[in-house]
Amino acid sequence: MSFNNYPHLTARVFNQPLLMDPTWAQGFFNTLGERLGAPAEADTGAGLTTQEALNSTGGNGRDSRPYRVEQGIAVLGITGTLVHKFGYMKPMCGMTGYDGIVSRLRMAINDPDVNGVLLDIDSPGGEVSGAFDTADLIARMGKIKPIWALAGDMATSAAYLLASACSRRLITQTGTVGSIGVIVAHRNVEKQMEKNGVAVTLIHAGARKVDGNPYKALPEDVRKDIQARVDETRVMFAQKVSDNTGLSLKAVLATEAKTYDGKDAVKNGLADEMINYADAVNTMSLTVKPRREPMNQKNENTMSADVNQIAATQERERIMGIMSCNEAKGREEMAQALALTPGMSIDAARTILQSAPAGAQVRTQTALDALMEAESPEALTTGAGSVTAQEKRLSGLMKHTQSMSKPR
């Protein structure tokens, strides 16, 4: 990532939902207003790219591990702003990449010297992109070796999302967690450009193509659309925290993105235990049982099979969620087409279906229909005689979901 790539950096932070503590975000955007770059720090080894760090651990690789090991516990530092596809293994220049977190975790999970992993977090949060996937991977890898989180300073917003995915969450008496909310910043340079005698004309195709551009004030309809995205992401965030911590969704939403320190965090269920920072590793080491077997090919195959099974289950739930939602009634054929669209979420499908008139049936004789006709198994029947087109398409959907569960 180039720190002088101003357009790219601006596109990543403005008009995009961010899981970031609002107080820290204010300073962050003020700084960006003055300079959208950052000088590279002296190379201390933390600047290794993910691939370089992986390559450097040939042999036992213990001296070059991108984490420290104490009493069988791998301590992974997560500091600064959390960003997607950063390209570096460890924190650098005030940022930590989700890709680096995942890479270090995988190394620790495979390390025979490691019995458990402690995420030492000091971060106000960061980008939405990559945050939810990283949290899910933390929870998944935590089934192989225990993964705990320590909020010695700050673990808020996206950083708390990661902490919530850990099996146990520790906090110091002055540590801060929470801020389960979403923020979007829109940069408007219209008045500044008028003052400087500069005008920008955007020539575009598509009425919504330039929504949120910085050259004019935010229109009310665009503001409402952004607010809807923010609200949807907040509920998604709160639901994930609820699933990970056992708190009810209502209780999580009731925090209204408030932050909690020390004992208040424990009292409100966002942390499990208040602890002295210096005791965290020892506490985890005494609790975690050493693994008797190092990670081998059989373990990796088992993990891969589990991942495939989880993906297949999620895919089935997504398809059935789209087909069985209230908005699909009277729009069954459209619902089926949306269900087989890769990456189509239930919420997005509901929005599309809701906008279509009741009884509308979009007929798309495309590759999808050809696939359904050519690859469907023997059609399911209701016993009423001839097979209907609806039953034949449902059979195809069943075959699609079943194929997802086969090991690859």
What's the level 1 CATH class of the largest domain? Alpha Beta
Q: How would you classify the helix and strand content by structural class? A: alpha/beta
Let me know the CATH homologous superfamily of the largest domain.
2-enoyl-CoA Hydratase, Chain A, domain 1
Tell me roughly what share of residues is in helical segments: 40-55%
Q: Which fold does the CATH topology of the largest domain refer to?
A: 2-enoyl-CoA Hydratase, Chain A, domain 1
Approximate strand percentage? 5-15%
Q: Helical stretch count?
A: 16
Low-confidence stretches: 34-48, 50-60, 360-372, 379-383
CATH architecture of the largest domain: Alpha-Beta Complex
Give the overall pLDDT as a whole number. 77
Tally of strands? 10
* N-to-C SSE string, H for helix and E for strand: HEHHEEEHEHEHEEHHHEHEHHHHHH
The largest β sheet comes out as: 10 strands, mixed
Overall shape: globular
Integer count of domains: 2
Q: Cα-atom Rg, whole angstroms? A: 24 Å
Measured between the Cα atoms of the first and last residue, the distance is: 33 Å
Q: What this model shows, in words?
A:
The chain is α/β, with parallel strands linked by helices and 408 residues long. The chain has two domains: 6-188 and 227-287, 2-enoyl-CoA Hydratase, Chain A, domain 1, CATH 3.90.226.10; 297-404, no CATH class. It is built from 16 helices and ten strands. It has helices at 6-13, 22-34, 50-55, 98-110, 131-141, 158-164, 190-195, 220-245, 249-254, 262-267, 280-287, 297-324, 332-339, 346-355, 367-375, 389-404; strands at residues 18-20, 68-70, 73-83, 95-97, 116-127, 147-156, 168-171, 176-178, 259-261, 273-274. Strands 1, 2, 3, 4, 5, 6, 7, 8, 9 and 10 form a ten-stranded mixed beta sheet that branches. A hairpin with a 2-residue loop joins strand 2 and strand 3. The chain is globular and about 60 Å long. The two termini are 33 Å apart.
